[in-house]
Each structure stands twice: as structure tokens, then as C-alpha cells.
Amino acid sequence: MTAQAIRAARVLPSSSSHLIQDGVVLVQDDRIKLVGHWATLEKDLEGVAVRDLGDVTLMPGLFDCHVHLQLDPSGINTSTEVSTTDEELIPLMTANASRLLDAGVTTARDLGSRGMTAILLRDKIKKGQVIGPRLQCANAPLTVENGHANAMGGVCRGVEGVRAEVRKRHAEGADLIKVMATGGFMTAGSHPSKACFSQEEMTAIADEARRLGMPVTTHATGTEGIERAADARFRSIEHCAWITESGNATFDKRVAQKLLDNKLTVCPTMNTACVEHDYFCPWDKRDVIVSNLRSLRDMGIRIMVGTDAGIGFCPFERYADGLTVLADAGYTPREIIAAATDMAATECGLSEETGRLEPGYAADLAAFSGNPLGDIRAFAEPRFVMACGREHKELRPIPPVGDVSEAKKMTLQVLRRGAGLQSQA
């Protein structure tokens, strides 16, 4: 059994812990064995190989709770693309998983992939055949005919139909259920404000998933869909954009109170607010997202970090961009770190496995230049990443944002037209 001591100028074991100056973490195989001050533990580490990372902050690896590994973020993509075979998707998904590691992400939820592609990659990572973050996979989202992401194959209708589709995901080995409660602008003819499933169907999904021990999350951009998910007592809401029938994003305090009362967590996918040109839609403007996030925080509604990486111009490695949106909304560095680590672990059912640096926990570690407690922009400079005890040795610097304004403008026009919105380009 191999052991390695990883030393750093600063070690932050969890979002609520004191910062350890000149700290060390002892890793043996895929587990953490010791955490503490170097001066205190040095004698216990005699004969153990020491990796000194220098002037960095070593902390738990990050969670990205909303990614799409089968998509290419370099340009236009829509949920209706079907030309690539499942076999051809695996190399792309493997490369995208590696880019998540570049950002310091050691756990990710893939919330929409065709067939068994995500589970195949998940299991390859588990077996050590490829290096990547721990994956939780939803496979094809539950949707309606001509609904958002219907090309992935999860079309169902009626109470018995949705129950059967939940059972199918369980049989496939999926980790959670993903539902398309509303339309989405990436699927032509699918309006982001309109609810797709009835309340009876939403409740049936939740009941069947609960019976099988599976959490349920949902794409819900429109307020109507958000409310139905809250009433059905889903585990979490993705996006939560508060879009009304008129196309405006207006925070609804009455519905938000339901999220709070029923203990739903929001994964707000902030990175769409980081695109320089407003290529998405009016509700993706940075000031709109910041305002809605501030309202969630004021009400005490839990959040977890997710990027929506994979959709056009949301690269997997630019995770840190979205954290600046949370900071703009008034979240403190410790609150942001919690949403990216231990709180996210709790919401993903992994609170006893990862999300903090403690003996017995998985060796999921990430080190960043500077001190994230003082400046959240430190997350843009990962210097060391280890997932389940395996170091990501090909850590690449986070590339700068390229000038793709014309491509973004074209994408704005195409996607808004498909969603029935008038382009503002």
C-alpha cells in the first residue's frame, strides 16, 4: 500500500474549518489518513515520500453539479444533434472529463447523455482505466414528445409512462433522475417558460424515484415548472431562472418559499452569465442572474455549484468564472467554497465519502495559487489535482477566453429563434 504526504503553505480541510498554516495531508492509496500541521506530524511521516506544493492552498476537490460531457463547448450545439454515434462520443467525453480535472473538479454530475455513454465512462474512471472525476450520471433526461433534449431518448407521457422511465433509469444503473420540467432554448420549438409535465406526472416521478432510492433533479427555467418540482418535492432544481410567460426573469418569492419549505437545493449554473456577449437569452444576463442569486441567499435557500459545461461557449475548464458571479451576488468565500465542496457533497449524497479533508475520506484534493478565502479568483489557478488518490499529472493551465464574439452572436440568433424568442443581437 503506497503512501504520500502532500505538504502546502496552507491547508483548508473544509469550508468551515480554520486554515492550517504549513499543513500536510497523508494519502494512502485512495484514502486520506492524516491531516494537520507539518510541525506536529513530521515525525509520524518518517520514511514517507513528501510532495511539497509550496505557496498554495490545498483543499477538497471541487464539485461541478451540472455538466454535459457529450457536448462540445467550442461552438454551437443543440440538444437535437444526433449525427455522432455513441462509440464516437466516448473519446470526446473522456477529454471533457480530463478538462474538469484541469479546473480542480474531482466530482461531477453528468445531467444528460445519450444511451449508456456516461455510465460507461463513469465505470472506466472507477476502475482506473482512465483518469477523471467521480461521476454521477442521469443518462437520458425524462422529457415529453418534442420536448427539451428529446433526441437523447427519454420521452415519456402519463403517470404510468413516467414511472416506467424512472424504473428504466434505475435498471440502467443511473445515479439520479433528471427531468425536463420545462422547455429549453437549445431545443427548437421547446419554450423555456412552459411546463412540460403535469403536477400528477411530476409527483409520480418523485414517488417512483423515492421508492427506488434515487434523487430527482430537474431542468426548470420557467417559474411554472419550478413550482411543480417544488410541490413534487424533488431534491434539486437546475437553472431556476424564474422565466414568466412573457419571457422575463422575475424572482417569485411565493414559489421560492416552497423551495425553502420543501428543502430543495438550487444549482444555478452561473457560468452562462460569464459569456461576454449575451448570446443566451435575457434571463442569462449577469445582472439578472446576480439579482436572483442574491434573492436566493437572502431567503436562505441552499445552492450547489454547477456550470452547465458543454453547452456552447461554457468550457469545462473555466469553472472558476461562475464563482465570481456568486461573489457578485454577495456570497462570502466560505459560502462559495461550501457550495463547491462539502455542501455539494451533502446534496449529492456523498457527505461521508468526499467534500472535506478528513481521515477516512476519499483522497480528492485540489491546490490553488493564493488563498481562496481572501480572493475567490484564486480558483482560476489550479496547481495540483488528485481524484480518488490518483494525481492528474497532465494539469494544463486554464486558457484565456478567446475572441469568439461573432460566433456567439450567430449562436444567439439561431438558438433564440429556435426557442421562439426575438433575437436582441
Pattern of helices and strands: EEEHEEEHEHEHEHEHEHEHHHHEEEH
Rg, alpha carbons = 21 Å
CATH superfamily of the largest domain: Metal-dependent hydrolases
Globular, elongated, flat, extended or rod-shaped: what is the shape? Answer: globular
The overall number of domains is 2
The first-to-last residue Cα distance is: 59 Å
What top-tier CATH class of the largest domain fits best?
Alpha Beta
Kindly state the mean pLDDT as a whole number?
A: 91
The main sheet comes to: 8 strands, mixed
DSSP, total strands: 15
Strand content: 15-25%
CATH architecture of the largest domain: Alpha-Beta Barrel
Count of alpha/pi helices:
12
- CATH fold node name of the largest domain: TIM Barrel
Helix content: 25-40%
Q: Supply the helix-strand structural class.
A: alpha/beta
Q: Are there runs of 5+ residues with pLDDT below 50, and where?
A: none
What does this structure look like?
With 425 residues, the protein is α/β, with parallel strands linked by helices. It folds into two domains: 3-61 and 354-391, Urease, subunit C, domain 1, CATH 2.30.40; 62-353 and 405-418, Metal-dependent hydrolases (TIM Barrel, Alpha-Beta Barrel), CATH 3.20.20. The chain contains twelve helices and 15 strands. It has helices at 38-41, 86-102, 117-126, 159-172, 199-211, 223-231, 253-261, 286-299, 319-328, 333-340, 342-347, 405-418; strands at residues 3-11, 20-28, 31-37, 49-52, 56-60, 62-67, 105-110, 134-137, 177-180, 216-222, 236-243, 265-267, 365-369, 382-387, 390-391. The strands form three sheets. Strands 1, 2, 3, 4, 5, 13, 14 and 15 form an eight-stranded mixed β-sheet that branches. Helix 4 (159-172) packs parallel to helix 5 (199-211). The longest helix has 17 residues, at 86-102. The chain is globular.
